[in-house]
Amino acid sequence: MCAQPAPVPDQSADPIGRVVLDARDIARALTRISHEILERNKGADNLVLLGIPTRGVGLAHRIAERIAETEGVAVPVGSLDITLYRDDLRRHPARGPQHTEVPPGGIDGTTVVLVDDVLYSGRTVRAALDALADLGRPDAVRLAVLVDRGHRELPVRADHVGKNLPSARSERVMVRLAETDGHDEVRIADRPEPATAPKGEDA
Amino acid sequence: MNKHLLSVDDLTIDDVNTLFTTAAEMHDVQRREVKKLPALRGRTVINLFFEDSTRTRSSFELAGKWLSADTINLAGKGSSASKGESLRDTVLTIASMGVDALVIRHSASGACHQVAEWVDCSVVNAGDGTHEHPTQALLDAYTLVRRLGTLEDKHIVLVGDLTHSRVFRSNVGLLGRLGARVTVVAPPTLMPSGVEAWSASAGFETSYDLDEVLPKADAVMMLRVQRERMSGGFFPTAREYTVGYGLTRDRLAVLGEEVPICHPGPMNRGLEIAADAADAAQSLILEQVSSGVAVRMSVLYHLLAGEGASA
Prior knowledge:
- The complex is a heterodimer of chains A (about 200) and B (about 300).
- Chain A is α/β, with parallel strands linked by helices.
- Chain A is built from 4 helices and 8 strands.
- With about 300 residues, chain B is an alpha/beta fold.
- The chains are: A alpha/beta (about 200), B alpha/beta (about 300).
């Protein structure tokens, strides 16, 4: 009853716009990000991957799998919901928070890599940093995103980027992942943004 | 969700499931070192309790504080109400201070509905007379769902002073809508008048024989004998009530070790519930209290956080 609902394929995944990353591109990008994380961290010691729901969690698990293949180390993976830390809560109907799960060892003294699908305004990351501060005190926090589409409203920069995707504000970037949507791809569509950010898009 | 939470009937099943899912996340927050979320920063919640209360008032206060709302507790005693000010003037005065929500407990059934018509802010019913106590029903159901997994086809038995119990009134409606089979048990003098028609429409059963019902229960909820609301003699002696309707040590043995025991508190130990039952391993009584904070956090969040919430 209180568990998170099982992922349901997104019925709104219309084949609109053009594909900018297909499944193989996403796989390569995640492999590269995994290697970058290991190089930057000089190995897998003391790493914790925290995915930002919904799609960031799946990406974090995939990065952990690649790190395990490369280093033979199981990096702890968790999820960090930022719903209750958003600065625009009063602009939308109240949304239910998603699950936050910190690995059993906690995050104190670790290097936390936040993982999300799209980096846009930077407000999600700001909220994630606030949420993280309530959970503990990592030694360092880094940010890995599959797509950076620009248009930052806050001084936020990703450490690891799958693809830089210059976009117009009027465009939508839609990330679909097998875990949540049944297939892997990133599309960009020339369509006015709705009042609320669509699934798979940073707000 | 509606602007107010006055009755469990204000909630759809989707609302209830959303509240439970959010409450589960709020429950996790209670286990953190930093029990604080910024979701209601800048919001103000006044707990206006015209009746005595320990757990409900402190539960709402903690819920508001852990969501970063400014919360103030006001009691009927010691406030202007005790100087003769009317309920309407009291709530309008407080609402005029720019509060976002009033959490109200009052001895008069329907008081919260009346207040909701007078003020612009959200109103949460924290118990009105013998009428309703919706957040108690939500936390009871939430606690049982966490223990039993689902309430679908589960047999829940409510026992005790039904006539004076707002918990009973809120619970039968909600538990039934969540799929539970509900049987209420009380001596004839404490069974509400007109219960037959109500039980037929709401789908619960009534019984005067606890020993006949108890072996079939998947969960049992003992209700407090509310002696402060009793104007006459509803049973000859406390001993006689215990023999007929108390969850005694003997009945605990019949119940077995797996069937959860609930009580909304405060308990009359030795009257409606034996100490052995209250402290048994299957007792959810303290879990109800901790669930209460999570459920009230969930309610305040969904009433006050989003667009269109009273400001």
